[in-house]
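ok so i was messing around last nite and threw this chain in just to see what happens. nothing serious, just curious
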Amino acid sequence: MSANDRPRSRLLIGSVAALLYFSEGLPFGIVNDLLPVYLRVHHIELATIGFLSTIASAWTLKVFWSPLIDAFGTYRRWIATAVLAMAICMAALAAMPETAGPAFWTIIAIFAIASATQDLAVDAFTIRATPPAFVGPVNSIRVAAYRTALIVGGGGLVALSSVIGWRGSFAASGVIAIVVLIVALRLPDDRGDRENRKSIAELFRGLGEWLRRPRAGVLLAIVLLYRLGELAIYTMIKPYWVDRGYSPAEIGTITSVIGVIISTLGAIAGGAIVARIGLYRAMLYLGAAQIASNLGYALVATTHAGRWAIYAAAIVENIGYGLGTGAFLAFLMAICDRERAATEYAMLTAAFGLTRVIIGTPSGWIAQHQGYPAYFWLTVLLGIPGLLLVPFAKERIEVSAA
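result:
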């Protein structure tokens, strides 16, 4: 590549990566941020809304069909097929009556599975298409595009629904998918030798080896429980805002747009704190902050406080969410063996994803039958066991971090 072609190539790769990773983040924002508001506005029971966490398990379970992406066809075709399926799903939601019957849930399930499949193919394609010298810039673009998509897919489309309606918001997301499809069809062919990925059998063998290490049981329990309280409250925040009488535009702006920005800044701050005081102490302090951040919603729901109090609760909760993320991701990276880092990290994040499903699915039922105040106080208590386990793994955490 000549010196004149290098900037052009960097721009092209960066632009494609930005669009593809925006396409990754948008469906996740739709399922986790837009749909809870949509369903509660249409008076769907909280117990039913909790079922969204079960559907979102597609992003956790995708590791089990990842070998298929490598074994058949090309990544380009997988991306195009998945994006086409997502576009059809959004078009179907835009065309159908605003209800939440069996057809609605079937469409959302297909949408989530297609999105998870797209994630696998996009990640694989980007790895192959990115020259080593561009890895750093592409990763930065990836994070920025994904976080932007979460804002658009969550708060942006929720706020937009106040102007063009819910069908219009679904149609807008379908149009975005069509744009991505056009780009995907023009991606270069990626046939040829591919890096060997771990098969599912190797993944389970890796899990067995990891569990035989010292304190592995405690570490796995921390993976499952450390963020339990935070994941529990996240699923019911937007329905709570709806039931308090706030508009979709206000909910989208505060809980998603501003919330994502604040949580991102919190995660950056959390990473800096880990670097400054060490992983073990950071997990204790930031874990405590993560638990304390849930108190805002618990107090607001108990006292039925006004607008500025609920705004403050949203900001505090997102700060705690971000700080906990910074500590937790550093913890996951530290307890992975360097020689099998990719496999072990995928395994641990999949285990963590199960936590979201386990607590998210019954969350609506609990909130519906016990009320928001009791449920939000419960999320505070749910965060404590994971924090109490950290001292039992102190030596392993310190050694791994070192």
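not much to say yet. Residues 335 and 350 are 15 Å apart (CA to CA).
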